[in-house]
Amino acid sequence: MKTPTRRKGRPKGFYAKTEVAPVQSLDRAMIVLEALADSAGLTLTEIAERLDQSPATIYRVLNTLNARGIVESDPQTQAWHIGPMAFRLGSAFLRRTSVVDRSRPEMRQLMEITGETANLGIEKDGLVMFLSQVETHETIRAFFPPGTLSPMHASGIGKALLSRYSDDRLDRFLRSGTFEAFTSKTLCEPVAIRKDMQGIREAGFAVDDEEKTTGMRCVAAPILDFYNEPVAGISVSGPSHRLTPDRISEIGKAVKQAANQISRGLGSSET
């Protein structure tokens, strides 16, 4: 196999297949960031206890990140939060994902048509990661901040993406482990999940019928790229008393049309 041409700025052993030890201080900083991202704010003591690290060590990490604007502290509560620079860095990921920009007009239209929150998500390490959302004006609504993770088998977008998997890839997913039951309606058995995939393929959209959260429904469809492969999913979600069974077909049609429109913009020839 031909070794790739070395690029400027890459160390000599960059392309070697041997494992490289992580930079411990950088790894620790990333763990602190993940802890803050998963919370509504943590004090120095809370972070140290949660990560089983000394307060002095965590304080040095926070000070370094704070100097770059990646974290910031509330002087009144003494709690640390994700800072504006972290948002800027994260936005770079969204900028390179053209599906986000292409999806925004369709998401806004979906929200206006259905009166419910529209969402965009992708598969990330076997989970659904939400990238963008257009919220409904209703007081009671679904809320998935960018970066929120959800299980594939119990979310509308996850099931929509799974329905486009090849037989081999779906088999690997179904053999990957056990599937958690979040409600009495969650599909956890491989046979049941596979049967659900058949129905989704026929309808062109997936339904999360209170399978993740009791009282919430979601209708989703897959977004395809130039190679007609699933790269994202778009959905409408809201409380079950508004997303009633008699509305599913109508909403499913609207979600499918939105997904098809985005897919065509990405070069898909299947929609």
Describe the SSE topology.
Blueprint lengths: L23 H14 L4 E2 H8 L3 H13 L3 E3 L5 E4 L1 H13 L1 H17 L2 E8 L2 E8 L14 E3 L4 H7 L4 H8 L15 H14 L2 E4 L6 E9 L5 E10 L5 H21 L6
Antiparallel strand pairs: 1-3, 2-3, 4-5, 4-9, 5-6, 7-8, 8-9
Helix pairs in contact: 1-3, 2-3, 5-9
Walkthrough of the structure:
- This is IclR family transcriptional regulator.
- With 271 residues, the protein is α+β, with helices and mostly antiparallel strands.
- Helix content is 42%, strand content 19%.
- It has helices at 24-37, 44-51, 55-67, 84-96, 98-114, 156-162, 167-174, 190-203, 245-265, and strands spanning 42-43, 71-73, 79-82, 117-124, 127-134, 149-151, 206-209, 216-224, 230-239.
- A 6-stranded antiparallel β-sheet has the order 6-5-4-9-8-7, sandwiched between helices. Strands 1-3-2 form a 3-stranded antiparallel β-sheet.
- Strand 8 (216-224) and strand 9 (230-239) form a beta hairpin.
- The two termini are 38 Å apart.
- Residues 1-8 and 13-18 have low confidence and may be disordered.
Give me the Rg, rounded. 21 Å
Quick one: biggest sheet? 6 strands, antiparallel
Distance between the termini: 38 Å
Give the low-pLDDT segments: 1-8, 13-18
Pfam families: HTH_IclR, IclR_C
InterPro entries: ArsR-like_HTH, GAF-like_dom_sf, HTH_MetabolicPath_Reg, TransRegBhcR, Tscrpt_reg_IclR_C, Tscrpt_reg_IclR_N, WH-like_DNA-bd_sf, WH_DNA-bd_sf
Protein name: IclR family transcriptional regulator
Organism: Parasedimentitalea maritima
